[in-house]
Structure formats: C-alpha cells, structure tokens
Amino acid sequence: MQEVVVMKAEDVLKQLEVHEAECNLRYKRIEERLDDQKKTLDRVDMRLWGLAALIVGLAIAERFV
C-alpha cells in the first residue's frame, strides 16, 4: 500500500518554482543550441546553392563547347 504524502500549498509552490527555474535554464540552452544549428544549416544551404549554380553553369557551358 502506498503512503499518502500531504503537502502544504507553500511547499508545492516552492517545488514548482524550482522546477520552472530548471526548465527555463534547459529551454534557454536548447534555444542556444538551435541557434548554433541554424548557423550551420545556413552555411550548408549556401554551399548547396553554390553547387547548384555550378552544375547549371557547367550544363550551359557544355552547349558552347
């Protein structure tokens, strides 16, 4: 049989505040990591566009050679 724990509202509020503070730190770190990944993806995107332009350019140049 499980023991029933009775807590006061103040205790629950304190635990909730601690939990929210921890979650805020985690979400902030997640946002930082997502920003870093966005920068990386932007660089990859530019490289892909460069390759696409190169491929199209070579296809056009091949017609004139």
Task: Write a brief caption for the model.
86% of the residues lie in helices and 0% in strands. The chain has 1 helix and no strands.
Strand and helix layout:
Layout (H helix, E strand, L loop, with lengths): L8 H56 L1
Secondary-structure-derived class: mainly alpha
Quaternary state of this entry equals single chain
> What fraction of residues sit in β-strands?
under 5%
Average pLDDT rating: 94
Low-confidence stretches: none
Spatial separation of the terminal alpha carbons: 86 Å
Question: Mind summarizing the main beta sheet?
Answer: none
The proportion of residues forming helix, as a percent range, comes to over 70%
Radius of gyration: 27 Å
Along the chain, the helix and strand elements come as: H
Gross morphology: rod-shaped
Tally of DSSP helical segments: 1
Q: What's the number of extended β-strand segments?
A: 0
